[in-house]
Each structure stands twice: as structure tokens, then as C-alpha cells.
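Thread: "does anyone have the structure for this chain?"

Original post by V.I.:
We have the sequence but no experimental structure in hand. Need at least a predicted one for the grant figures.
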Amino acid sequence: MVTRRSSGEHPGPATVALSVGIVQAMIDHARAEYPNEACGLIIGSEPAAAGGEALRFEPTRNKAASPFTYEIDPEDLYRISVAADDADEVIWGIVHSHTHTPAMPSRTDLGQAFYPDALYLLVSLGADEARSLKDSPSVRAWRIVEGESHEVALEVGR
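Reply from O.Q.:
Generated one for you, C-alpha cells below.
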């Protein structure tokens, strides 16, 4: 896995807060969809890049139904986007799991990052996690802008 990192300035935010409930919902969805990659959206008050607050996790179907890639089902994306827009909310984060690799954007992830103001959150279900399902998987956040990834520190609480 090759992750292109910028040698330039971090586009921000450097740190974001997520509730324990949102993180647990992401992990539960990733486990439920295993052996395929799981995907979903975090809805927020404003884009993460603008300092918005994460409000809730919305699980979606993976149209690709694959352990190696994800595609948020277009019907799910439309339904959730319209509901968020109607509530004056936005897509704050895009979530997917990696079934066998670390929670870092892959080359494919970098090429499919079409929402530069959102965060990309990855849940890793590596081999040990997939077997035990009791240990906490790795969850990391990234801002992907113009094909370059920038890690964003997660503060989990509340």
C-alpha cells in the first residue's frame, strides 16, 4: 500500500473530536460487513474542513461487495445526502474499512476521494482483529486533498 503524503502544509483540521458512540457504530458496522469492506457516512453540522461537528454515523451498503474495495451504494448516498441537506447538515466524513491492511488510505482510496472538505475515516480489521473481534481495531482519520493524504488526530470522548 502506497500512501502519498504531502510535503506541503497540512490543510487542517489537525485534530477532530468524535463521540464514543460514533466510533463504536463505525467499528460495529465494519465487523458486521466482514469479510467485505464496510462503508458509511458521518453527518455533521458543517464540513470537517470548516470546523464542523460530527453528529452521527450512517451505515451504507457497499455496492462493490468486496473485501478489497468499496463503493457507497448510490441509493444510500442520495437518500442520506438529501436528508442531511433538508436538515441543513453536510457530509462530514466518509468511512470505510480495510479488511486486511492498516487504516491508511490506499492508492485506490486516494483516487476515489471526491469530497475534499470531508474527512476519510478508516477502520482496520487486520487478521488479528478479524479472528478475535474483541480487540479494538485501528481507527484513523485523513484529509485527502488533490490526491495527497494528511492524517488528522482523533480525540474520542463524550
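V.I.: this helps a lot. Residues 20-33 form the longest helix (14 residues).
O.Q.: and The beta strands are 15-19, 39-44, 54-60, 90-98, 119-124, 138-145, 148-157.
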